[in-house]
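Anyone able to model this chain together with zinc ion?
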Amino acid sequence: MIVLGIETSCDDSGLAIYDGYNNKLLGHILHIQTSTHELYGGVVPELASRDHIKKITPLLKELLLNTNLTLKNIDAIAYTKGPGLAGALLVGASFAQSLSYALKKPSIGIHHLEGHILAAQLETETLKPPFLSLLVSGGHTMLIRVNEIGDYQILGETLDDAAGEAFDKTAKLLGFSYPGGKTIAERALLGTPEKFTFPRPLINRPTLDFSFSGLKTHVLNTILQLGGGTNSKCSLTETTKNDICFAFEDAVTDVLVAKSKMALEKTGLKQIVIAGGVGANLKLREKMNNVCKELKVNTFYPKIEFCTDNGAMIAYAGFIQLNNAHNPLYESNAFAIEIFPRLPLDTRCNSY
Ligand code: KG4
Ligand code: ZN
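re: yes, here you go
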């Protein structure tokens, strides 16, 4: 089965084609809307939707050209049905359902977070559930026990800001453009350790939940105490900004790794998948690898380019789900253009 995947949940238009006959990604293409939203310091939903509308057809044409395929070669279409921005999701859903109708091929709406979790399987077929997933993106921070594909237990999640959101808000305070996670990581490499020490929220508590909004406020207070001003008025020296980036990244990654360790110990799971945009963070990967080596746990990461939103994870998840008749998250919705801006992955598991 050759599956076209379409991701438009937020500010990236991603399309990809996965070949299920040969377990191979045939191609993928991504349009990042950074320049559209940069000016506003965050994603403007209406602008995101309009940009998806403009780009989705040319992107598909280019993808088909790059892969030497035509629409006739596509056996099924997968698209992100939620969670995400309503207008942005609608573009992908209506495009996918129209194609499905015109081509007389099945379509399937995919849960965006499931796409992130399964992205690591694109790299390795040896990864099979059960495993733990640390899902860290711009909108979510969760520890999930993946019992099998489609059976997800949320062991802990953020009580306020997501990890990526904390990166983005801190970047904004320092006057960097949106999204700022990658910039903070690059700046942190130039920073000096221990110039600043930031709190590690909830790190010593027995909970598997996270909290990052206090950390962001701590950064704000630090900048103000240094007399720096915030956002575009941030006048701190580049060296001080780099030192703050180091301290911030160090604190967030310490918490993410400590909670993952706690979850691995509590569940006894021996595999962990780090998913979502913040999973591209190399400091996080380095610390996670060290801890997992001690615990004799295998770590799995999607390719860096498939940590942030992309079409490949949706094409792959579509292939898996179309072959999984028993997944309760997926019911046939022949041609209905349905989106779910708020869509739980599963109920929270309170036993940890
Ligand atoms: O998964 P994603 O593309 O979108 C959501 O589903 O939310 O994640 C985007 C998030 C942004 O907050 C971005 O700043 C963050 O991932 N991010 C990073 C890095 N690359 C992207 N955060 C830390 N370090 C990075 N290298
Ligand atoms: Zn995402």
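The radius of gyration is 20 Å.
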